[in-house]
Design goal:
Family: Belongs to the sulfatase family.
Strand content: 15-25%
CATH superfamily of the largest domain: Alkaline Phosphatase, subunit A
Region (Disordered): 188-229
CATH architecture of the largest domain: 3-Layer(aba) Sandwich
Shape: globular
Protein name: Arylsulfatase
Pfam family, one: Sulfatase
GO molecular function: arylsulfatase activity; metal ion binding
CATH class of the largest domain: Alpha Beta
Number of strands: 34
Amino acid sequence: MRLASAFLMMCFACWWGVSVDHGGIPRANAASPNIILFMADDMGMGDSSVYQDFTGNSSAEQVATPNMERLARMGVRFTDAHTPSSRCTSTRYGLLTGRFPWRSRLKHWVLFGSQGDPLIEADRPTLASLLRDQGYATGMVGKWHVGLRYRQSNGQPAAGWEDADLSQPLHTSPLDFGFDSAWITSRSHATSGPDAAKLAEPATPPRRQRKRQSEATATAENNVGPGHIHGRTVMAASPNGKQLRATGDDAYVWHDLGKRHSDHAVEFLESHLQDATTATQPFFLYYASNSNHSPYTPSEFIAGHPVAGAAVTKSGAKMDVRHDFVYENDVALGRLLDWLQATPDPRSPGQPLIENTLLIFTSDNGAEINSPVASGPFRSHKGSVYEGGHRVPLLAAWPKGGVGDGSTDTPGGTREALVGLQDLYATFSEILQVELPDNARGERGAEDSFSALAAFQGRTALTRPPMFFNDHKQSKQDHAACAVRVDSPTVQGQAFPGKWKLFFTPSLIRTGTPLPTELYNLSEDPVETKNLLGEKPLERLVAFLTHEAKQHRNAGGYRLNQAAQSTSRSLHFTSHRGDPTTVAKQVAGQRTAEVTLQNSQAPISDLTVICTAYGANGNTSCELTCTLAGLGVSTGASPACDASEAIGFQFSHSVVVESVTLVAGSGQCGGFYTIGDKAPSQVYCMDADNDEQDQSGNVSDLGVVLDGEVLRFDSSPFMGVEPQGEWSIAKIVVRVLNAE
């Protein structure tokens, strides 16, 4: 086991290396725009006065956001923009990767705890790596919340918060996902560390002071989080275990975060221009603010501009602390606009940076409160697949690129096109004229991203693929329900004009089985009050949307859906009442077994699958087993796959792996899978706990396994430190790729 663990650690180290080598990266084209992506937290459309005419909020209740209005006048505003999920972790994953977040292991909710294992796979490209590879300097400030990994005191990866040594540099941070620089909080501000302002020791009598000092120590030792992280460094780490320093410049003070993020953003931009080696490169800044997630802790000032107590309605009345926190985003945005307008562009002498900078403002999901003001006219709010949970502000300006004219004296443009934040990956790729990853050749990346550049520039956009939204708290037993939207489809020659949104039970995301529950036409019913499911004239439409949802959900990405045959093929390994399936009979008792799946209707009629058992430490005297639960290996403590055993699959043709069903039973859902030489990914099981053990369901969206590659499921501890797996493989479902 020690040799096996050492080998695994070497493999993982290759994928999760700590160094960033920029050698050989091409210089960006002189016309490539700088990009600033500003994402607020928990901000509904009604939280910006840009949309007051659209939401219908009165001036007596509408918070004034003058800098957002300024950006909209310079550029455009979108009225039908959406997050891919109604919660923050998932949306951030989708934004950064161009992939629907439920294709990751996280089927709903957010990453919990002080860490949360990195959700983005080690070799998956992100917006930052896309831009860095094209010569951009890349920086981030603010809320990360897609997972970190700490180190133990011996420098090895930590399994979690409990064995983490905060004095060690982080094993995994934004620097591993394309960012050159990062000043972050691990999650939302209140869950990223104890508020040092509450731990301060006032001038009080000694007895009282000792009591407060004891309270400070206890609070700091709670499993809250690491406070400020710069790159890989926990800035307030102390010699006292997980206790953070409560004084000094790096003390984690909640109400200082808005100012701190803004200062670091300008620091990144100015240092970029002051360095002669980088000044001629474009920059990318991902500004993910903590505001306005509760608790509401606005800064007193940002760059001398008052924030706390400064929010007012459009009619001039003072507002509450929540709106101060909303207003903090406006002040931070205004500072960036001022800096861009005042700073000469070294790549375009005589022009300010604002001319060739694409500045985008949006939010990670709808408002966190159920308020008709914050959500505008839309139903529900954060955590819901109704429109109020995922329809968000989206503002953009790029004068040189035709996204607005840059003038604050014009009203700006309004775009009604349907766009999603996961579309930014393909949009940036089109701007840079970079090909998207070839998913059909096994390349990971941007599986669900559709370029919205035409919509940004006011041109006619192409018909987009279906758009999904997930995480629905109104699905009481399991929030992994979702909805899919398709606009004005034609079905078997019949046109269905409108904006059609069909809801499904969690079974679509969990197992790929579509069961519709609600249907709305947003063109006529944007508030989603009239459920049209069951109306006979719409039966053909519902059947079409259901089929489209199933195909796109199971294919692993919309371009893979186009590249693969429409018919799925399955290998069932479970035994039913002691009677093994045909496949089980063929493989049981052998180390390597060959199975052929036939489909006379498909262009490729025969698909051969080679199944192989791998024992621990290279043990070859092992056999495949088949039980009521499914496929396992014979040499471990049970007939399941355990004790660092593994099972591999090779296919005679390239396939899209729709899903693999792992059943833990009385075992444990640990381990990982690999495809060829790609980075390992954690497994999850059909019978795992929804929240505590990642997310239950089929292992899905694995992508393409090319002819000759090995898809391997390994029960060894992920990263060499996490729980070992004990599970059986019940079923594999694939679709053969069409011949090129």
